[in-house]
Amino acid sequence: MNSLVSVILPVRNGEKYIRVAIDSVLAQSYPHFELVVVDASDDDTPEIMKSYSDERIKYFRQKSKGSVNGYNEALNEYVAGKYITFIHHDDIYHHDKLYEQVRMIEKFADVDCVYNDIEFVDDNLNRIRVRNHEDYYHRNNDLLAVMMIGYGISNLGMNVLIKRDFIERHRLRYSLETPICCDHEYMFSMLDAGAVFKHIDKVLLYYRIHEDNYSGDRDRVEEDNLKIYSRYSLERLREVVGQSNYSETEKCIILGKLHERLGETNLSEACFLEAIEKGYDNGWIAFYLGTLVHYSCYGDFKKALFYLRKAQELLPYRAEVRNNIGCCLYQNGNHEGAYQEFRKAIELMPNCFDAKQNLSYLEIGKHFNPRTTSREIENPELFGLVWKEAEKKRAESDSLKPART
Q1: How far apart are CA 191 and CA 204, in angstroms?
Q2: Alpha-carbon torsion, ordered 353, 358, 361, 362, to 10 deg
Q3: What is the CATH number of domain 246-387?
Q4: 263: how many CB neighbours lie within 10 A of its CB?
Q5: Could you read off the pLDDT of 190-223 as tens digits, one per residue?
Q6: Is residue 264 within 8 Å of residue 292, measured between CB atoms?
Q7: How does 378-393 read in b/e, with b if 16+ C-beta sit within 10 Å?
Q8: Reported pTM
């Protein structure tokens, strides 16, 4: 196991965090890598880079403007590895990230990309939550379906290791049209090219959440997502969901969320209501009907509260539900009730960011637009990504083809 890995680090003004990111790569237990840094900074990042003398670091000033071009310049001109992975200047690799990823991708002949679980940390590297994933090996429709609603493989660029020959065979490059979600778009391109994915059931990446994260700009994220989805017709999206292994309940939820993301509120509402009429006993249906349809789209806070109360009955320990109930109460003028709900959400999840922000504004008497939680924020299996009706089919799959025994 001595294949060279090219770790690509595009950076613009990363002086605050980049040293920790670089040190986490240099400390890898797997020694066969090159760290390709493509720098477009006008802060002290270039000076920080001069302090390193490790011969595994290849440092280049970016030739063209735009954050996405750093990825493409590296892929076009600088990398030499058999495998490609990425790191952002504000994130951290686990000591064994490259070792575990190379070991997995070399175990199976037909795998093109491996990915792992991640841990979200704050600015001081304190744990916020762990994001687990599911194994979508040889089930691209399943992965594509949940990628469309923000699940699947999260924090994609840093979280994957990809065979370079697959990248070059399909000429996969980062899109300049989706700068905020360029890594998300890249995974869709890999899926369209027929990539086979394999999951590593370990936390191997620490994703730092701070006030400067691009992904924190929800409007720009959704704008990029709509550009990504525009490559598919509505009929194709429905076909992908329909042909997936998910249960009928979960297909309703996926389609409902997908229609909402595409701005088709009436179709979104119809999907969730159909699920309720069929008696599907899933609290997330009521959660999304209240949050996405009536709160966010219609601005009907009383009806949103009605459905969120139903969600609370089925999901009594979910901080996301209590936070959104608090948002409804605040919008309806019940500030004391909102205060109690935000407090309860934080009791259930001390690092519930939305509730903490809402409570802080409420306590200082500031008029504000409450921050709703538009999706469950941890333990995705409670939504249904570990979906019982699909397990039998997956267990019977004979698609695993080890490269060696």
Answers
A1: 23
A2: -140
A3: 1.25.40.10
A4: 11
A5: 989 999 999 899 999 999 887 665 555 667 877 8
A6: no
A7: bebeebbbebeebeee
A8: 0.80
Instruction: Assess contact for 201 and 161: CB atoms under 8 A.
Output: no
Distance between CA atoms of residues 38 and 73, nearest Å: 8
Domain(s) labelled CATH 3.90.550.10 in the chain stretch across 5-229
Looking at the DSSP assignment, which residues form a beta bridge with residue 9?
Answer: 37
Q: Percent of the chain, pLDDT > 70?
A: 89
Dihedral (CA of 374, 188, 197, 145) sign: positive
CATH 1.10.3720.10 fits domain 5-229: no
The boundaries of every CATH 1.25.40.10 domain in the chain are 246-387
- Please give the full DSSP string across 9-33, using - where no structure is assigned: EEESS-TTTHHHHHHHHHT-S---E
**Token pair in block for residue 67:** 């954050």
Count other Cβ atoms within 10 Å, centred on residue 405: 4
Report the C-alpha gap between 144 and 210 in whole angstroms. Answer: 28
**pLDDT confidence of 403, banded at 50, 70, 90?**
very low
Predicted pLDDT at 229: 82
pLDDT for position 164: 97
Cα 159 to Cα 4, 162, 165, 221, distances in angstroms = 18, 10, 19, 19
Tokens 């409570």, residue?
Answer: 359
Q: How confident is the model at residue 323 (pLDDT cuts 50, 70, 90)?
A: very high
Residue 273, burial from CB neighbour count under 10 angstroms (0-12, 13-18, 19+): middle
**Dihedral sign for Cα atoms in the order 199, 205, 210, 215:** negative
CA distance 177 to 394: 36
**Cβ atoms within 10 Å of 181's Cβ, excluding its own:** 24
| Rounded Cα distance, 216 and 86, in Å | 20
d(CA 33, CA 293): 48
- Does position 237 have pLDDT exceeding 80, yes or no? yes
Residues 6+ apart with CB under 8 A from 277: none
* Cα-based angle 77, 81, 84 (whole degrees, multiple of 5): 85
